[in-house]
Description:
Elements: H1 3-10, H2 16-29, E1 35-39, H3 47-50, E2 56-61, E3 73-76, E4 91-96, H4 106-116, E5 117-128, H5 133-142, H6 164-173, E6 177-183, H7 198-203, E7 211-217, H8 222-225
Parallel strand pairs: 1-2, 1-4, 2-3, 4-5
Antiparallel strand pairs: 5-7, 6-7
Amino acid sequence: MTTLARAEQTHGTSGVAIYQLVAAVLTARHSGGGTVVDVGCGRGELYQYIKGRFGSYAGTDVLRYDGFPDEGAFHLTDLDSGRVALPDAVADCVVAVETIEHLENPRAFARELVRLVKPGGWVVVTTPNQLSLLSLLTLVVQGEFNGFRERPGLYPAHITALLEIDLRRIFRECGLADVAVEYTKSGRVPGISRHWPRWASRLFPRRLSDNVLVVGRRPVSNGDRT
Length: 226
């Protein structure tokens, strides 16, 4: 399946809890202003949650979905090809929401995100949480992670399942500092369509969250300061 076909299966959108978590993480770490680049932006729905934090918003994806915000700058990119059509160190923050699991080479993708961010800037990646109770039970019973099952049509749109430790290692390999992992605190109860109570998800975020986020900062070198 091509990158374009995988992107079309997603309809260019993610969950509200994911966008809210990304916005909270950026608010806690970025003082405001500057540029944010949304890699694998889909419809650009993240913009509504962060537009007050940045001076400009740019999105890039393999196709431009209907609904992409008029205020944003869109750049067409096949993310499996390797390089986003933007210059080095163009962004104060770079975000990839539910994108890395669709791509063939997550490490190359992470290096590209780091290339785009300025020294001192932040990189944020979200992906399905393979350590959730739902995903682990699906793995035990059906032999595959919940977000990557072929029968409900998640595979081959989702092709790369990453654990929390994989995300941490990739960020370290890319030279990012202050790496942290957070969870959406929103997850489905196995076997039914209901979500866990909010209090339970807050007590056990790793096990009761459908999605995980990793964030890291590109260090500022002596050469960057001069």
